[in-house]
Amino acid sequence: MSEKCNTCPSASGCSIDPNECGVKVETLLGALNKIRNVVVVMSGKGGVGKSSVTALLASELSKAGKKVGILDADITGPSQPKAFGIKNERGLQATDYGILPPQSQTGIKIISINFFLPHEDDPVIWRGPMLAGAVKQFWEETDWRDLDYLVVDLPPGTGDVPLTVMQTLPVNGIVIVSSPQDLAFMVVRKTIKMAQKMNTPILGLIENMSYAICPHCSEKLQMFGDPQGKRVSSETNIDYLGELPWDAKLNALIDQGLVENYDSENMKTIAAQLMIKLP
Fold first, then answer.
1. Statement: residue 90 has pLDDT above 90
2. Is 70 exceeded by the pLDDT of residue 2?
3. Residue 16 has pLDDT above 90, yes or no
4. Coil, strand or helix: which one is 17?
5. What are phi and psi of 158, to 5 degrees?
6. What phi, psi does 265 have (nearest 5°)?
7. From the CB of residue 230, how many other CB atoms can be counted at a distance below 10 Å?
8. Closest C-alpha to 35, from 79, 98, 88
9. Torsion angle of C-alpha atoms 197, 35, 95, 25, degrees rounded to 10
10. For 125, which DSSP code?
11. What domains appear along the chain, each with residue ranges and CATH number?
């Protein structure tokens, strides 16, 4: 008996081949979801701190009193459960309206492939269509309920998953993350062009790891070269949201699953700008 038959009221007395059945069965999955804004965090290449920026942005929005969720769409490299210290040892719970996403200490709802794996370090060895399908299911079959912001952490690049998200989800805007290197900004331009071709609004650019502060003399160190975020934003005609430093304290808190305990004035300013753009 097919899944459709299991939910069909006429299944017990029916002799029709399920493959030929024309009965449409309504599903309750996601029926109660009311998500006001979907914000996608993208990067042209890996290693620029996109997932850290996602976690910090979601944390600041939550601290501002907003109802926030994170969809970890980086299926082969999920990091949000680790950053928020969620191991979900009791297993996922579900209702008729979908999977109940585990929540962080401040109430951020998070869905990630890591919650479905026996061990957090088990690899996901899937081809593109399966990756994209998983992201689509996370969107449609999670019981998000009311959210002011759903922040989507995309894998780097412009492949299957970013394409699926832009085509399937009602994306309100994209935040692009880069670092000061020339190579990173060369690839950022590809991401910007993809968003423009998909007619998806770009909220702005964040330059991550723009500098570091020496713990001894407080000198600002530009470890990865001169900041280029403002110039690239101007050249590509997108807003410059701000810069974030490289901070050993942040790295330590993420390793401990305590990213919400990090205080970032820079990210508060960035989050405030986004709340103006997408109230």
1. no
2. no
3. no
4. coil
5. -130, 40
6. -65, -35
7. 13
8. 98
9. -60
10. -
11. 29-277 (3.40.50.300)
Name the token pair of 268. 């508060």
Alpha carbons 88 and 215: distance in angstroms, whole number: 36
Measured from the Cβ of residue 41, the count of other Cβ atoms closer than 10 Å reads: 24
End-to-end CA gap in the chain: 47
pTM score: 0.87
Torsion sign across C-alpha atoms 14, 20, 24, 25? positive
Residues 6+ apart with CB under 8 A from 161: 73, 74, 75, 128, 131, 132, 135, 154, 155
Lowest mean pLDDT among 72-81, 174-183, 250-259: 174-183
DSSP 144-193: --EEEEEEEEPPSSSSHHHHHHHHHS---EEEEEE-SSHHHHHHHHHHHH
pLDDT 10s digits, 106-165:
999 999 999 999 888 899 999 989 999 999 999 999 999 999 999 999 998 888 899 999
Torsions phi, psi of 264, nearest 5? -130, 110
**pLDDT per position as a tens digit, 173-218:** 999 999 887 666 778 888 899 999 999 999 999 999 988 877 777 7
Tell me how far apart the alpha carbons of residues 219 and 10 are, in angstroms, rounded to a whole number. Answer: 74
Per-residue pLDDT band for 12 (boundaries 50, 70, 90) equals low
Q: What is the DSSP string of 35-79?
A: EEEEEEEEESSSSS-HHHHHHHHHHHHHHTT--EEEEE--TTS--
